[in-house]
Automatic annotation (TrEMBL):
It comes from Aphanothece hegewaldii CCALA 016. PROSITE patterns: PROKAR_LIPOPROTEIN. It is found in: Cell inner membrane. The keyword Cell inner membrane applies. This is Nitrate transport protein, NrtC-like protein. One of its GO terms (cellular component) is plasma membrane. One of its GO terms (biological process) is monoatomic ion transport. Residues 1-20 form the signal peptide. Keywords: Cell inner membrane, Cell membrane, Ion transport, Membrane, Signal, Transport. SUPFAM superfamilies: Periplasmic binding protein-like II (SSF53850). Its main location: membrane.
Length: 442
């Protein structure tokens, strides 16, 4: 395949890092430029509306509401459950909600798209948390979960043989074209030598409808956050070949999104909301809280599915397949959902999940170039300025100071062990990274 070189761009400058004290979890008074303190009298707006799409990724938002964390920070937050990410985006753009759970790519696509809408990410809500599910047709065609193969190469050979034996492109679905699951699915396919733009048809379907589309045979598989993969397996409609953290360990999940105008108008409220959600994220990452979280999420006003289907990805009993006459073993993935910090081989203090990592946004921008989205054929020379507007760090750092959370000391480089194809990602070398890929849109 003909290789195309991208315009040379040397590096991205590192964001300035502010080191805060990490001496406790009390709620201290902070000393920022604006002398902001955790004082309800300084909140420009106390009653907020926050939209979300029901999934296990939404746990910090729901927990902050149910456990009184928002209230403890002087905020009265009303949650608005939405059925799709397009509804979330529309409500943000129209100013019908103050903030929302968002897809990681939303700010980038909004600001670089036709509308040039100033949507931004205030913080990361989670890492990992998704999986790829295939249907019965793939099982009958000889495909199996990754655990039944010696390595990724063996699975890749099997998957390519199956894909090309069908004689037509497979239909895959994600919850949105802007979903991180879309970019990970393309990455996974590309790593197996399959061109996701030519050999696969990719659809966007509301997450709660994916299981029915797979059962009806409308799609061959999907990539989505939990609990929809586990529900599909439990009902013996599909099986899981790969979970998302095995494609990229520590990949970004969902964000807290808002519009720049709202943040400019309510800066103290914005940083207090971020502080409250950091607190909720810390609660969600404590193993002793996971069963209670699953019980809360299962309620009818939230995910409205049985608690056991939510527990599987939260309490180390993940199920990859559930067919009769097969040994249906469960797997322990303590880092399947990361909300703030767990000690893993790819997450060490002071690094933590909620920080707006520049490496994540750089990687996403490389993928927009790789797949020629929004007319991007070259990596932008002004990428620093572009990403600063979409994924700023100042409000997050102020909020972290309220909680005395130490800010990461250095830029994050993803070692080759982080990705399924063993490619290292250095955010200071995006062009060198892009030029490694044979499969891309030309």
């Amino acid at each position: 395949m003909k290789r195309r070189k991208f315009v040379k761009y040397t590096s991205l400058s590192s964001a300035s890092l502010i080191i805060a004290s990490c001496s406790g979890v009390q709620l201290p008074q902070t000393n920022t430029e604006e002398d902001f303190k955790l004082d309800s009298s300084k909140l420009e707006k106390k009653s907020l509306s926050l939209a979300y799409v029901p999934s296990t990724d939404a746990a910090p938002i729901i927990i902050a509401k149910e456990k009184g964390i928002f209230e403890r920070y002087g905020l009265a937050v009303g949650l608005q459950r939405q059925n799709s990410w397009s509804e979330i985006e529309k409500r943000l753009l129209d100013g019908k909600v103050d903030t929302a759970q968002g897809l990681f790519a939303m700010p980038m696509l909004a600001q670089l798209g036709k509308e040039k809408a100033p949507m931004i990410s205030l913080m990361m809500l989670n890492w990992n948390g998704s999986a790829i599910t295939l249907g019965k047709k793939a099982w009958k065609g000889g495909l199996r979960p990754a655990s039944e193969y010696q390595n990724f190469l063996e699975f890749s050979n099997n998957f390519r043989d199956y894909t090309r034996s069908t004689g037509q492109p497979l239909n895959f679905a994600t919850e949105s074209a802007a979903s991180m699951d879309t970019y990970l699915l393309r990455y996974w396919l590309g790593a197996m030598g399959i061109d996701p733009k030519k050999e696969v048809k990719l659809l966007s379907i509301n997450p709660s409808q994916l299981i029915y589309k797979l059962q009806a045979g409308t799609i061959d598989g999907f990539s989505v956050a939990e609990p929809w993969n586990q529900q599909t397996v439990a009902q013996q409609i599909g099986f899981i070949p790969y979970i998302s953290k095995d494609i990229w360990r520590g990949h970004p999940g969902k964000i807290l999104a808002s519009m720049q105008g709202w943040i400019d108008k309510y800066p103290n409220t914005a940083r207090t909301l971020v502080a409250a959600l950091i607190d909720a994220c810390r609660f969600c990452d404590k193993s002793e809280n996971r069963l209670e979280i699953a019980q809360i999420l299962s309620q009818s006003q939230y995910l409205n599915i049985p608690q056991p289907l939510i527990e599987t990805s939260l309490v180390d009993k993940y199920l990859s397949e559930n067919w009769e006459n097969f040994q249906n073993e469960t797997f322990k993935y303590p880092d399947f959902n990361l909300y703030h910090f767990q000690n893993t081989d790819y997450l060490k203090k002071p690094d933590h999940v909620n920080y707006p990592w520049r490496s994540h946004s750089v990687w996403l921008l490389t993928q927009l170039v790789r797949w020629n989205e929004l007319g991007l054929t070259e990596y932008p020379k002004d990428a620093d300025q572009i990403l600063d507007k979409m994924y700023p760090v100042k409000i997050y750092e102020d909020a972290a100071e309220i909680l005395r959370i130490e800010i990461p000391k250095q830029a994050r480089i993803e070692p080759k062990t982080s990705f399924i194809d063993q490619r290292e990602f250095d955010p200071s070398q995006p062009i060198a990274y892009l030029n490694q890929f044979e499969i891309r849109t030309t």
